[in-house]
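<instruction>
Derive structure tokens from the sequence

<record> Sequence and structure tokens follow
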Amino acid sequence: MFIDTFKSDLDEVSAEVEVILVSMSNPQLKNQIRNALASYQDGAYWWQKVYQPRVINVSSLTGETNRTSADAFLMTSAPYTVAIHWRQASTYLQRAERQVATLSR
């Protein structure tokens, strides 16, 4: 499943980046990168909540429980939440890139 691959890659990259962040001295740059990682992780969390595979394993089928109106709202709004988190992650990364560019001058 695509979500599993994405989550696995994100976890791997997050671990690598955290090791690098320990040696960085610029606190603003570290925060921008940490915020980007957190936003990607938050987006992945919500994506996993609403992900519905197109291939269904028959043995995993169970009777669907009644959904409350709050559950229905969550299911419809979560994709927007994912997009918001990932857009926010992109913003943090762009800020980090600008900081790196000014530091390297």
